[in-house]
Amino acid sequence: MSPPSVASETAGSREIPALLARSLARARVGSVASVVSASLRPRTWARLRFGVDLIIVCLAAGAANVAAPLRVSQANMFFAAGFVPLLLVMLHARPSPDDRLPGSLLDTGLHVLGVVSLAAMLALAVESLTGNSHPIGMALRLWLFSVVYLCLARAVLLSIRRHAVRSPRLATPTLIVGAGIVGSHLVRRLTADLNYGLRPVGFLDSQPLRLNDNGSGANASVPVLGTPEDLFDAIEQTGARHVILAFSSEPDHLLVRKVRECHRRWVQVSLVPRIYESFNERAALNHVGGMPLVALRPTDPRGWEFAVKHALDRSVALFALIALAPAMLLIALAVRLSSPGPVLFRQRRVGRDGRAFDLLKFRTMREASEADEFELADGIAPGGVEGDDRRTAVGRMLRGASLDELPQFINVMRGEMSLVGPRPERPEFVERFSHEVERYDDRHRVKSGITGWAQVSGLRGQTSIADRVEWDNYYIQNWSLRLDLRILAMTLAEIGRFRG
């Protein structure tokens, strides 16, 4: 019996270093994760971003001096030295768009461009008022280097944070006060899109709504940890660093006390406002005495801003049709040779104010030989391949690169569509969804679009119709030319990846 005993002891002694190595590795990973997680906290992240901005702006000032065509004068050096603190103060005097969840590279770039431009103009104005020389060349170099360097640095920081918060280990543990329909919907959104960096760890509600057959009610994957009175015990238990106040039955005075205590503990607090369906980015905060008063400013699809949008739509569509005419002729020839049938596919769709029009596409499928037996599932929007796959080889390529949509520039020129807006639907589905989906008809307040917020958010093909409605109504309520520009940029990025 002794040899097996010795062998087992030897094997056990060999396993001990391996176990210790794995334990040390886990400890190192855990310590690194805790350090990274701590650096992602708002206060720490703001300090890190300030430090990066300080280095980058100093580098930009140095590059502007080095790039001077002649020897740098003392006045230019003083100008650069004054520009650096002025720009840093202006960058951090107000919240930046990359503080928002999940953050946008386009919004961050526009913010940097605006702040640097204003700082350069203010610096020149101060120089003029003090009677000094006008270092226009130096100001232009400072502006150029600062914009380029800061945009690159902010893009790198935002990308690093986005990548980091997608990890459950690094995402911010979040408690939801209110285990009702709104709270459950919020949890579904946060778990579906990890870019927000918020990881729901529990509900708090004295009267949680049970999960129903239709999916409404408290989310089964997130436990109810107690009532709002147990908030700080739940924070200690889960390590939560963010609290979201959704709708609950608790009195406001109790929640106010909890919010104040959260602030004292450096726990972030967010809330879903009442009648949130009517809120948009145009809402303005006023005060009557010490009481906040939020002014709701709705989007006016009949206003002058949309008139400008539609004029720009037609101008861009005309330019696109002229520039892409050779490519469209080649595509038309390829479609004609790919299979019998017309080059253009026409389908009746419903647009603004419920008016029907013929949407144009390059034909991508063979003509059906028999009645299509496709039946749309409940809660799903139509699109993509419906029924038998009748796509031609050319059609697959056109759909993958979205080139089949190019004839819709003609719809834009006719005034039937816009470049950006909710995608139009067939009359039979419009009638169905109008009865099944709340606020579906709100999309008909504006012109339909070639691309839209729902599409660039991943809701293409046969996806949830309720989600599409939510995204499309968000676009209408928060419309701006900047949002249109963002959607067009995201569309080009998606096409560049050659979907499908």
Report on the structure:
The protein has 500 residues and is of the alpha/beta class. The protein is 52% helix and 11% strand. It has three domains: 42-165, no CATH class; 172-272, Rossmann fold; 304-366 and 388-496, no CATH class. The chain has helices at residues 2-39, 42-66, 74-92, 105-129, 136-165, 181-192, 231-238, 252-264, 304-323, 325-338, 393-400, 408-413, 427-436, 453-456, 465-477, 481-496; strands spanning 172-177, 198-204, 242-245, 268-271, 284-288, 291-295, 344-350, 356-362, 417-420, 448-451. The strands form four sheets. The protein has a four-stranded parallel sheet, with helices on both faces. Strands 5-6 form a two-stranded antiparallel sheet. It has a two-stranded antiparallel ribbon with strand order 7-8. The model is unreliable at 6-12 (pLDDT under 50).
Radius of gyration over C-alpha positions, nearest whole angstrom? 29 Å
Number of domains: 3
Number of strands: 10
Between the first and last Cα atoms, what is the distance in angstroms?
Answer: 65 Å
Helix content: 40-55%
Uncertain parts: 6-12
What is the H/E string?
HHHHHEHEHEHEEEHHEEHHEHEHHH
Beta fraction of the residues? 5-15%
Q: Strands of the largest sheet, in order across it?
A: 2-1-3-4
Query: Which class do the helix and strand fractions yield?
Result: alpha/beta
Q: Helical segment tally?
A: 16
Query: Averaged pLDDT, please?
Result: 84
Q: What global shape is seen? A: globular
How is the biggest beta sheet arranged? 4 strands, parallel
Q: Which oligomerization state do the chains in this entry correspond to?
A: single chain
